[in-house]
Amino acid sequence: MMKPLKLDLHTHTLASGHAYGTIQEMAKEAAEKQIEVLGITEHAKGIPGTCEDIYFANLKVVPRRINGVQLLLGSEINILDYEGHLSLKPKYMEQLDICIAGIHWQCYTFGSREENTRAVIGAIRNPFIDVISHPDDGNCPLYYEAVVAAAKEHHTLLEINNNSLRMSSRKDVLENDLTILRLCKEYGHPVLVSSDAHFPTDIGNTDEVEKVFARIDFPEELIINYNPQKLLDFLHWNREHRK
Question: Who's near 112: CB < 8 A, 6+ residues apart?
Answer without folding.
Answer: 141
